[in-house]
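Good morning,

Attaching, inline, the backbone tokens for the sequence recovery test we're adding to the shared suite. The designed sequence is right after.
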């Protein structure tokens, strides 16, 4: 499907493509997989950067069920059991609300790159991926996340840099 190929082509981090391909493979012919389709052992080396979020229809209800250890380093605090919108998002609150809203309502994967994903983290660029999960095949009730951060100085350096994380 061309839209899937176009989405995948936007993933600049090698392991983002790996997570996306795994998610797509778990879905099979369905639009999105369920949580039960995801086997953490299959992506064990990526788990530190993986999050599993619970969600309802409203994006402000998105909450981390599980958060890898790398996410704690990126966001500067333990995320497990926290609402995404309990974080100090500053002027990025609308950005994140729109991203989660699209994943939930349109049942579509989203990705992006964002300088300073939360307040006091302007020294990093976050490359993020959000993938919908559904138990009934119709309603998004969980989101699989993959986040990689790097210093702004590395991400925007004039020298070529292999974005391999």
């Amino acid at each position: 499907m061309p839209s899937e190929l176009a989405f995948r082509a936007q993933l600049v981090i090698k392991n983002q493509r790996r997570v996306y391909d795994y998610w797509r493979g778990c879905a099979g012919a369905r639009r999105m997989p369920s949580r039960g389709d995801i086997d953490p052992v299959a992506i064990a080396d990526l788990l530190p950067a993986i999050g599993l979020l619970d969600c309802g229809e409203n994006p402000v209800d998105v909450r981390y069920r599980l958060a890898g250890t790398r996410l704690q380093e990126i966001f500067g605090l333990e995320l497990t059991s926290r609402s995404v919108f309990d974080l100090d998002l500053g002027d990025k609150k609308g950005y994140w609300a729109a991203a989660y809203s699209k994943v939930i309502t349109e049942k579509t994967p989203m990705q992006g790159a964002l300088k300073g994903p939360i307040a006091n983290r302007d020294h990093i660029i976050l490359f993020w991926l959000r993938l919908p999960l559904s138990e009934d095949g119709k309603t998004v009730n969980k989101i699989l996340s993959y986040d990689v951060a790097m210093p702004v100085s590395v991400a925007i350096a004039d020298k070529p840099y292999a974005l391999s994380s």
